[in-house]
Amino acid sequence: MTCLPSQSGKKLGLVIDLDTCVGCQACVTACKEWNTGGHMAPLTDIDPYGGHVDGVWFNRVHGYEHTTEMGGRTVNFPRSCLHCETPACVTVCPTGASYKRASDGIVLIDEDKCIGCKLCSWACPYGAREFDTDVGVMKKCTLCVDRIYNDNLAEEDRVPACVAACPTSARHFGDLGDPLSAVSQLVAERGGVDLMPELGYRPTNKYLPPRAHTARPASVAAPALEPVRADGGFLGWVDRMLSN
Amino acid sequence: MHPAFSVVFFTTATGAGYGLLALLGTLGGFQIIPPDFWLGFIGMGLALGLIVAGLLSSTGHLGRPERAWRAFSQWRSSWLSREGVASVITFIPAGLFGIGWIFFGKTDGWVGIAGSLAAIGAIITVCTTGMIYASLKPIAQWHSRFTLPGYLIFSAMTGSVLLNALLQGFALGSKVQLAACLLLTLTGWGWKLATWRYNDRLEIPTTANTATGLAGGTVRSLEWPHTEENYLLKEMGFRIARKHGARLRQITQLLAFALPLGLLAIVFALPWPLAALLSVLAAVIQFAGMLVERWLFFAEAKHTVTLYYGR
């Protein structure tokens, strides 16, 4: 049913730290690697070695320049499904292929029911859904539903592939419906924000803005070398020897 | 938004088809136009032909058209599903009305009731089509109070001009029908101008700042995540050159509104064969103009995902 379920209160999602993300694309490749064999497989690539490369990705990292009166900075910005609380991508679906799980709030697609009408991708303001032209159905982030509940994996590996891969711990996974969870406290502490809150989709994923610029500007000049006294001492002798 | 021809043709053809069906159902059902065999055969054939051609065209947009039947299930939440259900249900009274008119030569009694029900079904179906677009918040040009009335007005306009061509062809044309065509075409023209004016002045609160959560200052796209156009840019990043947009708006106004108005105004003063010829010409030109209008409806609509790409 594409009507939204009454929620259990559990809201699994990601918290992405824009302060520490270095834009290394490790989450992008880890996501592609896991999910091309996972729940929504395959993540088709069209003409991968040709001149017009195209394909399905669940996670893409943009680069922005954010300029304020305090100065400018580069911000690496990972963009993926936010598993919204009121996802229009689900309610517009005419077939019931798109659904939001009552148990944990994950938004998924039943590929066997999808007719590929693309309306859900029009309804998503964040560009989280990508159409697989080869299979003829829509694809999206599953929050690695096939990892996070997977008893065959070691407990520390039961997190989304993007979170496991991040070398700077810029990606955090947890229950954002629980105010005492580590991710909720991180969001509260760092002032985590919703993307496009004015549209009212109520995203579960939160973004931590880059920390404010400090009043102590970093020195860009190299420190002056110690002056070498040419007239004496050991260093003076070395200098004279090397200058001969 | 990418103006896929299957969807451009679908909304234009079904709009005209449902408009004609609603008028035939009402005017036929209340005996304002006679239950003539050939009039019913060609009129209902044209209306249902346009609707079926449009619906078939819309399945050309699907990745898995063989599963299209599943789209009738989610009418509780989805306007697209409601459109599917409404279009199929409308075929029942429309079919009965057509059978009564063509095979039994009558449009009163149960046939008249079927005609009225077909007209109601047609109007509901056009409303559901309009709501598919009007309900999409990420596209500000569609999520406006102009979208739904626009679909209804253009459906009534194209349906009415088609009906006039049909009636003139059977030498059944009337000054009232001609006046209705002129009035609806003028209304359509005014509505389209008002819509464009509104869209051109639209101030969208969603910016690259709110899209990225980076408050204050400017957010400039430095680098895309990919070097080639992906699905998002092909489907939702469609852009049209401003000068081409302006030219296509002129073409829309000429074909959809100005020329049909001029031709139909002349028809007032013309005898039968010429009046029919010009009426058919007006309907054909208007249909072509509405295809351009619908193409622009998609091409000029901007989706919020383009903000992530600095567009």
From TrEMBL, chain A:
GO molecular function term, any single one: metal ion binding
InterPro entries listed in its UniProt record: 4Fe4S_Fe-S-bd (IPR017896), 4Fe4S_Fe_S_CS (IPR017900), ET_IronSulfur_Cluster-Binding (IPR050954)
Keyword presence, Iron: yes
SUPFAM superfamilies attached to this UniProt entry: 4Fe-4S ferredoxins (SSF54862)
Presence of keyword rRNA-binding: no
Domain 4Fe-4S ferredoxin-type positions: 12-31, 71-103, 105-134
Organism per entry: Mesorhizobium ciceri biovar biserrulae (strain HAMBI 2942 / LMG 23838 / WSM1271)
Source taxon at top rank: Bacteria
This protein's name: DMSO reductase chain B
Phylogenetic lineage: Bacteria, Pseudomonadati, Pseudomonadota, Alphaproteobacteria, Hyphomicrobiales
One Pfam entry name: Fer4_11
Automatic annotation (TrEMBL), chain B:
Keywords: Membrane, Transmembrane, Transmembrane helix
GO terms under biological process: anaerobic electron transport chain
InterPro entries the record matches: DmsC (IPR007059)
Origin: domain of life: Bacteria
GO CC term, one of those recorded: plasma membrane
Spans through the membrane: 7-32, 38-63, 84-104, 110-136, 148-170, 176-194, 251-270, 276-297
An example molecular function term from Gene Ontology annotations: dimethyl sulfoxide reductase activity
Protein's recorded name: DMSO reductase anchor subunit (DmsC)
Species per Swiss-Prot/TrEMBL record: Mesorhizobium ciceri biovar biserrulae (strain HAMBI 2942 / LMG 23838 / WSM1271)
